[in-house]
Structure of tRNA (adenine(58)-N(1))-methyltransferase TrmI:
Amino acid sequence: MIRVGDRVLVLTDDGSRYLITLREGSIFGTHLGNILHEEIIGKEYGDTIKIGRSKAHILKPGIVDYVFNLNRRTQIVYPKDMGFIILMLDIKEGDLVIECGSGSGSMTGAFARYVGSKGKVVSYERREKFLERARENIDQLGIGDRVEFKLKDIGDGIDEKGADAFFLDVPDPVPYLSEVLSSLKGGGRLCVLCPTVNQVQSVLESLNEKEVVDIEVWETFIRKMKTNPKRFRPEDRMVGHTAYLIFGVKVSRGGEKYEE
């Protein structure tokens, strides 16, 4: 049963989506009419309500709904990149994942869901306002106990060692790569997010000089389709470039290094 304080996704007949936190006596206005919170409280996910002359479905929000509705000051990591990052970093139950650049907490939340109750995410952010905003967003997901936020520039050192994975999303990643690698265990995976080509080139030059193998650079694209069965085709608009994703695996120091 849906209760006061729960978050629900209201999906209307025209495809509009509203993420609402339920409060006693509250009203949420839409272009179709007002949604009375009292009409949702006590119902079950999957039930239908009326909005004016239209109907809407009450659904349980997914991680993508939270991502696109985050209270944010920074650019989010898009879901099309999120899933690929999680798979390439092999995030799983019980992992220790470190990220630098909490941003709005979108990637933090995705990591926290996948490490499970036995894992941990440590998120470094040097801007206090961004860190607090990310913390608020993670708390709304109900998994704040899996995340530790640290107000610190990782150029001053990373407290954790033996991490399974590291996600680096900062304006100038190259100066931090040595610290990132020192925090990873042997075989640990890293991902560096770079918006521009020149950043990719600089990161690749640096990684090629360090104990990192299996280096790859990816860019992801997806297209949403119209769901009219008689006029099935791609949507008129799509999200183009979001970021370049650089992946690599740390190898232990002292191992033999091969030259091409």
